Amino acid sequence: MLGLSIKEVSQALKEGRVSATELTRKCINQIKKTSYLNAFITVTEESAMEQAQRADKRLCTGKPLGPLDGVPFSVKDNFCTEYVRTTCASNMLKAFPLFWVRAGSTDGAFGPVRNPWGYASPYREQSLEDPDVDWVITGGSSGGSAAAVAALCSFLALGSDTGGSTRNPGSLCGLVALKPTYGLLSRHGLIPLVNSMDVPGIITRSVHDAAAVLRVLQGRDKKDSTTIQAPDTPPSLPELFDIRDLCIGIPKEYHAPGLSPDSLAQWSRAAAMFEQAGARVQEVSLPHTRYSIVCYHVLCCCEVASNMARFDGLEYGHRSAVDTSTDAINYEHYFKKAQQMRRLISEDFKTVFNSGVDVLLTPTTLSDAARFADFIQEDNRTRSAQEDVFTQPVNMAGLPAVTVPTALSSRGLPIGLQLIGQTLQDWKLLTIAHWMEQQLNFPMINFHTDSNERGEQRERTPTAA
């Protein structure tokens, strides 16, 4: 049951084949069984069961509130949640009952998050019950959200995406991760990092599921002045889609140093797949991409400093002995230049899309998931910046983007590719992503909950890079 899609489990709830209470209990048990992944900081077991009981009452009337009613989900711990602590995985906010800086989800105050694929891949011989194997990272910073969905602990998770923080772990954990158009989803309750780039992200196991969640959450919110009116969308994505009129752009600048042979092979494979199906595939140029990492980090540091000033150690957090009195001296000089470069990066995307390109196809990450032992040997900030090379330009332009799992690498770990769309064309983006997902037939994670549920897992043929 835990391996079903949101659409499938929602139908099972409506037909009475499973109750919301039973489903929630299964998820809680799975969280306990996979506690060594360290995906969760706080598990609201009592509250979840109470809400499940209320969902069952609604289901008994035959009038559930919507497609997600009764479906258990997870939330990244930087969303303020009523009567539940929100820590941002930091010592500073351990007691905040309602910060984060991205990396590979390895540096949190509550310990690193482990990638379920390090235990479940059919190409690896590690035991599910052995938490001390040579494990791999999830990517970050929404790594806990991704691990929860990949490990079948929940059917969807909300993350946050400032420079790739949902797409990066989505790719490394074999999941679909959507970064919507800036303003399409409310940021109310999301602890701000970089206001001009932050968006809530959606992590699911299929494109259809991501579309269902987007449809529920999108639109104006009077508590967030940056939200925009959602365009009209159909009830669900089309199962059949003719891509012969599409133009797929391949940015030449995304052939970045460090791109692994496995990732390059999947990028080339997907481009050929589109072309063979009748789409026009052409190389395009985003010339200011090479400056995007530096630009992003200047803007990020400036806005983070402004946002985090509220956590000054008076009411929350702790006092630091580090002298930061000179940090703001050059903010104006560098901030203005970075803003100018950000506009040029955004104009590059506009130029390409105005030329007739429908979506851009790129890698999501440089490679599959790194071994934790290798990751911590490097400078984490530098490594994280490198991993964001394909994702953070999208945030600076406010565009929608989605990562779709494509195949397993030679190491038996997931590789994802990114599709980038035009502003407010999230539904078109997901329609194309769904077509791509259908063609690729990515193997479902072999992460069975128990022997009684193995027959309910959808079988797929593993595809190696």
Automatic annotation (TrEMBL):
<keyword id="KW-0547">Nucleotide-binding</keyword>
<feature type="domain" description="Amidase">
    <location>
        <begin position="326"/>
        <end position="430"/>
    </location>
</feature>
<dbReference type="GO" id="GO:0030956">
    <property type="term" value="C:glutamyl-tRNA(Gln) amidotransferase complex"/>
</dbReference>
<dbReference type="GO" id="GO:0005739">
    <property type="term" value="C:mitochondrion"/>
</dbReference>
<feature type="domain" description="Amidase">
    <location>
        <begin position="22"/>
        <end position="97"/>
    </location>
</feature>
<dbReference type="InterPro" id="IPR000120">
    <property type="entry name" value="Amidase"/>
</dbReference>
<comment type="similarity">
    <text>Belongs to the amidase family. GatA subfamily.</text>
</comment>
<keyword id="KW-0067">ATP-binding</keyword>
<dbReference type="InterPro" id="IPR023631">
    <property type="entry name" value="Amidase_dom"/>
</dbReference>
<keyword id="KW-0496">Mitochondrion</keyword>
<protein>
    <recommendedName>
        <fullName>Glutamyl-tRNA(Gln) amidotransferase subunit A, mitochondrial</fullName>
        <ecNumber>6.3.5.7</ecNumber>
    </recommendedName>
</protein>
<dbReference type="Pfam" id="PF01425">
    <property type="entry name" value="Amidase"/>
</dbReference>
<dbReference type="InterPro" id="IPR004412">
    <property type="entry name" value="GatA"/>
</dbReference>
<dbReference type="GO" id="GO:0070681">
    <property type="term" value="P:glutaminyl-tRNAGln biosynthesis via transamidation"/>
</dbReference>
<keyword id="KW-0648">Protein biosynthesis</keyword>
<comment type="subunit">
    <text>Subunit of the heterotrimeric GatCAB amidotransferase (AdT) complex, composed of A (QRSL1), B (GATB) and C (GATC) subunits.</text>
</comment>
<keyword id="KW-0436">Ligase</keyword>
<feature type="active site" description="Charge relay system">
    <location>
        <position position="141"/>
    </location>
</feature>
<dbReference type="GO" id="GO:0005524">
    <property type="term" value="F:ATP binding"/>
</dbReference>
<dbReference type="InterPro" id="IPR036928">
    <property type="entry name" value="AS_sf"/>
</dbReference>
<dbReference type="GO" id="GO:0050567">
    <property type="term" value="F:glutaminyl-tRNA synthase (glutamine-hydrolyzing) activity"/>
</dbReference>
<feature type="domain" description="Amidase">
    <location>
        <begin position="109"/>
        <end position="314"/>
    </location>
</feature>
<feature type="active site" description="Charge relay system">
    <location>
        <position position="76"/>
    </location>
</feature>
<dbReference type="GO" id="GO:0032543">
    <property type="term" value="P:mitochondrial translation"/>
</dbReference>
<comment type="function">
    <text>Allows the formation of correctly charged Gln-tRNA(Gln) through the transamidation of misacylated Glu-tRNA(Gln) in the mitochondria. The reaction takes place in the presence of glutamine and ATP through an activated gamma-phospho-Glu-tRNA(Gln).</text>
</comment>
<feature type="active site" description="Acyl-ester intermediate">
    <location>
        <position position="165"/>
    </location>
</feature>
